[in-house]
Amino acid sequence: MIHFERTKLANGLTVIVHQDKTTPMVAVDVCYNVGSRDEHPDRTGFAHLFEHLMFGGSKHIPSYDEPLQKAGGDNNAFTSNDLTNYYLTLPKNNIETGFWLESDRMLELAFSKSSLEVQRNVVIEEFKQRYLNQPYGDVWPLLRQLAYKVHPYQWPTIGREISHIEQATMQQVKDFFFAHYAPDNAVLVVTGDVQFDQVVTMAEHWFGPIPSRNVKPRNIAQEPEQTEIREQTVVRDVPNDTIYMAYHMPERLDPAYYATDLISDVLSNGNSSRMYQNLVQKEKLFTELDAYLSGDYEPGLFIVSGKPSNGISIETARKAIEQELDRMKQEKVSEYELEKVKNKMEANIEYAEMNYLTKAMNLATNEILQDAELINSQVQLYHSVTASYIQEVSQQLFLPENCSVLNYIAKK
Amino acid sequence: MLNRTKQPIVNPIEHIDMVQAEKRLLSNGIPVYFINAGSQDVVKIDFIFEAGTWFQSSNLVSSLCNSMLEEGCRNFSASEIAERFDFYGAYIQLVADQNYGYANVVSLGKHLPAILEVTENMLKHSVFPEYELEVLIDKNKQKFLLENEKVRTLCQKKFTQVMFGEEHPYAMNNKLEDFDQINREMLVQFYQTYYHSGNCRIIAAGRIDESVLDLLETHFGGSDWNQKLVPAAEFVMKPSPQKFHHVEKANGSQSAIRVGKMWVSKSHPDYIPLSILVTIFGGYFGSRLMANIREEKGYTYGIGSFVLSLKYASYLIISTEVGNEYVEPTRKEIAFEMNRLQTEPVSESELATLKSYLLGEFLRDFDGPFALAGSFKAINDFGLDYTFYDRYLDTLRNITPEELMKLARQYLNPDDCYTVVAGSMG
Questions:
Q1: Contact with chain A for residue B71, Cβ under 8 A
Q2: Which pTM value belongs to this model?
């Protein structure tokens, strides 16, 4: 259970404070409600490129990192399909430097030409390092493109292609900033040994004067229901064949999301899970086999990926996976299995509460999703999932016409 | 009035609460180092055995022996072991490095009795079933093939071979054939020789009270797995006479670069001031290498320098992946930055920034039970005590630009360094 207090400034900025007296540090997390789903299809990778530019100096502060380091601070950021999260940690007596830095870059960036040029290059090298120059590096982009025809989840956060990053202009950068970076489109979370009143006073002082930008609610075209199975086969210079099967699944706020999460745990979380025990250990059909969720806020993907053992064809591998998924549809999971995955979920939530920064990030991302309080209600939501409900959700999920299959074949 | 151009007053970090590990001996002599800290009912217990690659006579033995610990023991089959951990939401991480074999357990405190019961059986009575071994070898073989496709892996392997000589235990030299030569007997023999109380120490962190210590005594304190510490053998390093090496990997868009040299050990008087120098050079986001090669030139997504301290050797390593066209310019800039540290004193302002940053890092290293355990292990592995950190803080607060320049002249000569590039020369 994480106790927190919350308020909203006049300009629309939500402020959340959680006191953790066990640490000498504070975390300051600023999360913006903008991700790669908000990009134009011809200018993908922009939200992530923008995350890089946020470190290139702001209106009154030429360098972000140096003053933070002077105060003993450290920071990082990440961009997802759904949001962009910036977080820093500082010794608690230097918390104000965090407010100074974060408020100035929310107010306005420096929009430096040289920063844009260099960060374009850095992101292009990141693109190569993570996607082009890695075995299986293009799996995720291929799978997204196969599963989504309309929704912007069809491209990865790094972008659809390098040229989109190469062609980013300063005007586009400015437009993107003023359209999405605003107090009324963000949440500020502070965790550590701090008082709510102290944080609110500082937030009023530093963030209060930033004008609200009346950010327009997003209007994203929803993915139409998939009506037939999709399949793509690619041949690549990799050591092993791999099969990927992606099923459309409910959005994060749907109660079925929690059931789907537990389905993936029954199938593949830990060495005692069904797929590991049956297909890796007993039948030796795979050397690696996983089931997991993409974790997106809007309707995302339930993915099974597996590397067949030597001599096992991709067809045999697929049949074996389908059999395990069918079993989820035909039989209820046992009470023991259900208790196991719930225990595990509960323990993981407890582990996540050990760290003040993890707590700040979880509060921020849940508030962007809908409500920071979700962080506390999730234990109950997982607990209320029944074996019959898991079966029901499996029956809706594991339909051939809901599936996209990617056969990733090793060049011989 | 709101002044956005001026940084708020920065307060110095004066008080650092360095919670220290306490020591207790089990009846059979296993030292237990424990840190009682943290707000949650979580416990992490690391069992550390002198059983790393240093002790193996053939490749893969130490790591496969370690992995097999969860594949079956006298009272529990592999699947029963997995069930036990999963049911209680606990984890066991089995990993072997150059010197040690680890079994690291994380559990909610309330489930610890059930978890330690199975852990005891795994550590003392592993049975190495043939079938599970076969599955494990297949899995590792595939992982090996995948890793060998990555330029960073190829580069790191070659780099360690160049520094130590291919036959040295600190060189990564696993080959595909090794997987066919391994057999059960080799693993069993390794297990019997190295996994016992005489070769073990325990580091426990989290909510550790007397009941946890009692559990450790009950399960691991007996004389039933008692043998003497096995002395470590000695090996001669055979570094390559050639300073530059290339590993060809066709058709890639990036190359991996490693530059480095042998370094002083943690107990050497220069180690601490050098660690500060290495941080300025490439150890944080504001470092010279990052500022020049990423933030000014945009050649890479990331570049860093760090010191890898192993029990019997340490080395400095600069590591990056860059577009193929940037390999030569990057090498040039790495040398340029070494020369600059040798010829120009670090400015007072840069040094002040670095000192604050490192003090902040120091606070983080002593914040929370797991960080505290990590900081303890970092000295305990080398037979050092907490005075190491007192010396560190003292050095950090007092070091001068002149001392750093002197150290750079002695230790950071580009000509002394080995360079390995893995990628396409095409």
A1: no
A2: 0.94
